[in-house]
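User: I'm putting together notes for a lab meeting next week and I want to include a structural view of one of the chains we've been expressing. I don't have a solved structure, so I'd like a prediction I can at least talk through. The sequence is below, exactly as it appears in our construct file.
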Amino acid sequence: MGFMEKMRGATGPVLWVLVFAFGILFMLQDTDVFSVLQAGPRSMGEVDGRPIMQNDYNQRLNQFTENYTRQTGNPPSIEQRANFEELVWNQLVVERALEGEMERLGINVTDREIVQAILGDNPDPIIRQLFGRPDGSIDRATLRALIDQPETQSDWILIEDQIRENRRQQKLNQFMQSSIMVTDREIEQDFLRTNTTASVSFIRFPYSDISDSEIQVSDSELRAWHRENAKQFERERTWNFRYVSFSKAATADDTARALQDIAIFRNDFASSTNDSMFVEMNFTTTPYSGSLVERDEVPSAFSVVLDMEIGEVSEPLIRGNEVALVKKTGSEGNRLSFAVLSRVIAADRTITRQQNNAEDFREFARLDGFEREAEQQGYTISEATATKGAPFVPGLGESRVTLRALERLSRNQISPVIELDDRFIVLIVDRITEAGVRPLDEVRQQVENAVRAEKRRDLMMQRVRDQYSGAGSLDAIAEQSQRNIQTASGIRMNGTTISGAGREPGIIGAIFGTQPEALAGPLRGENAAFFIVVTEREDADLADLTSSERDRIRTRLTQQKTRTFTEQLVERLQEQVRIKDFRQQLMML
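Assistant: Thanks for the context. Below is the predicted structure for the 589-residue chain, given as structure tokens.
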């Protein structure tokens, strides 16, 4: 019997199952899951058609977590791991985008280059590592013998692929280095800008002297400014939500249990003849140190040791989130030594209980309503706003885990229990605002402040231009305006601030473009209108540029150029490439 015949004869539960299956298929089409299946079971996404394989992702993520654990002695927390996951994903996206950029630039490695890298006079480091002799030569007989063996062909494919990738990366690095080359002229200009200084006298007219009552702002001006500066008000997708928290913090019962558990070691600690081994074997969180310390250097939490006998062990102590036993191990004059066996106060039972409470709340909230269930159980409801790409969530701190959960939710939907580092939360989404320019009504005050500031600057500039443009000196302006003449010295050409005037990079530029003793102004600054007179200028002499200083400047400028070039390249690549992210469909977010 064919499929259609089976369909015609299907009744009852069988027909329902088939209809349900087709419903699932149509739903999966809407979620683009077929793209995931077509990309293969191990593909997490694509960048211009180049797959990001799950194996590559997992290997790099494991490297991050292992390095973190090795460096800190602890596994990464939930949020730290989420940060690593996002970092690894972004790295792989950029790398796949760079592969396309290398192809566009014609950066490739020919088969002839690979042959030379394996059999040539200057073989690749991989070949040297595998077939190098102690004297630095290559065991070419073994190399050729393995190349000719059919059973090693799959291994050679991997080696050739690795050599090809290394060579492509070298060529890309060479291209980037050529793009960020620092010239001698740039070094000399930087030296001159850093070491050329000036002294100046000035009078400033702060824009804040213009009162709000002197400025009128119309709705049409607000709309025009908002429209012309729309990029300032662009936002990513935003969620407004409410949540209930279930703390993981240790309770008094957890502390009492931890004190009881560590008290068991007190007699054995006292009788131990090798204290460093004892505390290490019993997993202390406080490293052993047998050195003598002054009495006033003993931490206050362990001050009980001051009045103890050598070999005596204290009662269990509480130090922050730890419990501890302290043993006095030595004394010399006014100094002493001690060993500490400490353990973090475990909140395992509390965490399990709170997770269960969160699960129960979630299920009843779905049945009876979020707000009603919270009120019945006496839970506090908090409100928060989260924005895509901004992991800091007010009230929760940095939480990519929360952002990931929000990505999967629709309006009025209650989340599963979300585990954070310090708590469990259950949330409900109240509103989702899609990405775009924030409307004027939302940013009216911000726009009005900007328009007023702009008008205030224009009005002050026009006022001082009308009143003082005929003055021939700073003294005349000071007398007419009843303002003091200020002075500043040691202003560097590459500086951004003026003593007594604040951040004024534009005015500093004008200072070094003005003839000494000549009155200049009015000049439009960041915070005030200026009239200035350069009283002294000391130009740097390139004869003072030493070779070591030249090298330091070259290094600094190279680092600056590299950072800028890389940021611009990555930004351009991410704007140009087509990124498909299958992580959510694969339940990895």
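A couple of points you could mention at the meeting. Residues 252-346 form one domain. Residues 547-576 form the longest helix (30 residues).

User: Perfect, that's what I needed.
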